[in-house]
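for the writeup, i need someone to sanity check this before i put it in the appendix. the sequnce is what the collaborator sent (i think, or maybe the updated version? ugh). structure was predicted straight from it, no edits. if anything looks off just tell me and ill rerun, i have time this weekend
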Amino acid sequence: MQQGGNVEGRVGRRTVLKATGASLAVAGLAATATACGGGSGSGDGTVTIRYAWWGGEPRAIAIKKTIALFEKKYPKIKIKPEFTDYEAFWEKFQTQASGGNPPDVFQNSVTFLRKYDKRGVLMDLKTQADAGHLSLENFRNNVLTVGQVDDKQVGIPVGANTMALVIDLKAFKKAGLEPKLGWTWDEYFDALQTIQDKLKIAGDTGYFSIMYLYDLYLRQNGKAFYTESGLGFTEDDLTQWWEDGYKRVRSGLVADPKKIEQVKPKSGLSAGLAAGEFTWDNFSIRYEGEGESDYGLAPIPTTNGKDTGQYLGSLMLSAFTGTEHPKEVAQFIDFMVHDPEVGKIMGYDRGILATSEQYEAFTPTDDNNKGVKAYEEEVAAAGLLGKITPHPSGSDVIEAAFLRIGGEVAQGKAKPADAAKTLFNEAKAAFAG
């Protein structure tokens, strides 16, 4: 999941709607990795540790500023930065992990935690916390749990985000619509019909291909996308979800997927093909940069008029279990998640700042970041945030498959029942990998 992925684009006005109510054989990997750790030392006691992340140039510029702050405070620790885009990062990381030489510290997400914990790559950072080199205190809204696997702390959150509906404010206003916290799916789909009737455009860009939105829908109905070891729903469940979605494509309530493809990399929302799109709230800045309208965050529809199924996702920092410099790595992570000046520099690039020290240090001045902050505070205050469902090893493959197969359904290339069967077969293979 590309939570907190590259957040770029022109900063514009935001309004927040107010609410009313392949397989790696790892035998011996740890021993090999310890001998091949990415860090290095010198005769004067200075050590160098590798720090890798994904994202665009704005993120790289900000992170390099934070590295300079760290090296000023810890002159005996030098940081070697490595960064690239999301897909290239994980391709490279797979190779590095297989060779026993991943970076000492690296950006991570819940999608990959169990995969690389299973392969013996991730350090249990509780050991460094117990040694006094890393604080696990002052994390907001229980977000620290996102980085936990089997009672181990294998990731330390740097930011937090949750799903939202981004809407074209002008379109919704023209259609006479004002979503409220607790609105239902029926009300949402009625709103799409109203938009189509009054504005002659689709209301949604393609909700049913988004794995994380389907997870929220399942959670609203007592299930979840994942159990700790597999999928938490049935082929019939998914068939129904995709059948309903395809019907709405054919009726025009959901945008024509061919037109969505034609405007890429621009979003179908910012291109004016639809009035709404579900995404992670901190991704929403992109629309102001791409589009000609004004955009805001609206609540997730519900099944029962209350529960949205939402949770906080997070980008995290993880450490290589075989690093030659575990103490220094822990000190670096601690600095990056707790230091107030780092919070001021990073802002909400990777989501709402995870610790109270950084959250309180950064005051957003633009409407985009103010909107994201207000939205998450509203959701948290309403008591809607639950605990994230653990993602089993192989979930990175399944997320990509869900998006691809859902797209085939939308284009009429695959029948929903056949598509669901394909997804389950691919998931079985991914879990076995």
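Residues 57-73 form the longest helix (17 residues). The CA atoms of residues 39 and 157 lie 22 Å apart.
thx in advance!!
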